[in-house]
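In response to reviewer comment 3 from the previous cycle, which asked for concrete evidence that the modeling workflow produces usable outputs, we include below a single protein chain processed end to end. The sequence was submitted unchanged, and the resulting structure tokens are shown without manual editing.
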Amino acid sequence: MLSLASEPPPLINPTQPSVPVSYPIKTLEELESRSYFDSFHYPFNKASVPVIQHGTTSSDRPQLLVCHDMAGGYGDDKWVQGQGGTNGRKAYSIWHWHLIDIFVYFSHNLVSLPPVSWVNTAHQHGVKVLGTFIVEGDSGEERAIVEKLLETEESSQMYADRLTELALNLGFDGWLLNMEVTLMRSQILVLKTFISHLTQTMHSKISGSLVIWYDGVTVDGFTIYQNQLNDKNKPFFDICDGIFLNYYWEKDYPNSSAAVAGDRKHDVYFGIDVFGRDTFGGGQWKVINYIKNKNKKIL
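The workflow returned the following structure tokens.
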């Protein structure tokens, strides 16, 4: 994932006419109230291109997932009609869409809604687009979110329904769920309900949709990156469409994870950090060359 510091985007009044932009949902209250659908910007953010399937199905082969963790998100790409302060000169871009299966739009906001420009472009190339639902940290604000989200099974299902509704109406293909927060055992049980209900409702409403779990919190309730599929994170993997592992993995982790996943080994995604931070083989493109030259059995 690529993450660079940036200035926070200016505040907007979503009910007032203005130049249309893409923007995230920052609170559970906004999500629950469905206020996004009352926004002036909502109609402009509905994707117009359905995902076009090419080649073999994803279950037949390994897949490439690209996670856009770029300067907090919503930079030049937030301008629905192309009005960028840099006119796109510094915009993040992708040149090899044919190599990608899944594109995740990531930011450190509670609900990252993929800008419509990304969705339409990715869909033209047969690439599925996921938004991100994230709760990270143990400050008072994050604790309040967790308490409300996981108060009851019914509350967790309601928020899952809201996320499904957003994906359905905006025309993207699923969610990355990123929980990096300390949880109690009772909350883990409700979290499983949230994950499974979101997965089921997404599948029922959007053909080919995906819900992918990020390897953050374990079944014990602690944020300890496993960097492989094991008994600490497999219960989450079992109730959704895949797991996205962090980039601290070691040489034998892909093979051991494939053994744990069984016939779902292609649903396990290993992170490679573009800056090479603690990534096996040096990260960046080096890890691909290392795998090819040093140990062809990996992956």
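The CA atoms of residues 277 and 283 lie 7 Å apart. We consider this sufficient to address the reviewer's concern, and the full set will be provided in the supplementary archive.
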